[in-house]
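Run transcription factor B3-DOMAIN family-related through structure prediction, thanks.
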Amino acid sequence: MNYVSRFDELLDLNALHNWPIKKQLTPGDVKSGRLIIPVHDVENYIMPRLPVDKSEKLSRYRGRIFIDVYDVERETRYNMELVRKMNGRYSLEEWDQVTLTRNIQAGKGIGMSWVNGVLFFRILSD
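Sure, done. The structure for transcription factor B3-DOMAIN family-related is below.
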């Protein structure tokens, strides 16, 4: 069993800018309807914080789980599917719920943090 400190879950994300996962959005992230999340971020940051059954399910070949995703700036919650692709990469499906309503462009930075079972995100300043 993996033990992860809950200290980061007590932090105020907006005040402290605690965004352990950072990514520059690609044209594919914006146009495909899915956000590719780096393997090391999913496996080293998100999966250890998941309940064991969800972590095991996601780690399987073509594993998939539903997670809540929260837009900190818009104060909007989404339910999206985190999927392990055949090539071992991970994607957040239904990401177009965000890109279509926010008109986000490729090249923008995004910060993400897992807190109390929810993936929080914000668009980072240039």
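Residues 50 and 117 are 7 Å apart (CA to CA).
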